[in-house]
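Translate sequence into structure tokens.
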Amino acid sequence: MAKRMRDDEASLIDRSQRGDVNAFNELILHYQQTTYGVVYRMIGDADIAADVTQDAFIAAFRAIQSFHGGSSFRAWLLRIASNMACDHWRRTQRHPVESLEVLTDEDEPHAASALSALVETGQEANPEAYVLSQELQELIQRGLQELPLDQRVAVVLCDIEGLSYEEISLT
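Result follows.
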């Protein structure tokens, strides 16, 4: 089954390189959550991570001709996304922007998204486990934000996304 998936992916990549937008959309659907997760863990802001993820997919589509299979497509795509997240992080460090969210009630939107996440993950039967999981994720995210950017990239790609050292080095 894994071989079939690689063959399907190779076919989608080939079609994408020939300009088939629908084939690239299928690749996006397959890697969307993983890519967003990497970017979110590096940036720490859900809305900005969504924007950077979208920009990464656009950049990947524009650069799809340069993908020659020296690494996995996943590693290539995650490198583009992590580079874009690094670029965004560097820009914000040079020109910090204060969020307007501090002027609004932050509890209400987060409560709604937490509730929808609870229902989507099927954790409604065990809210305690869900809360503990959320707390752990917040601790991990805070810890990641404390790391220097280059170390954060390495931890996210290797330890969280499971890329091998070889895949990371080839990208």
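Note: Confidence is low (pLDDT under 50) at residues 102-115.
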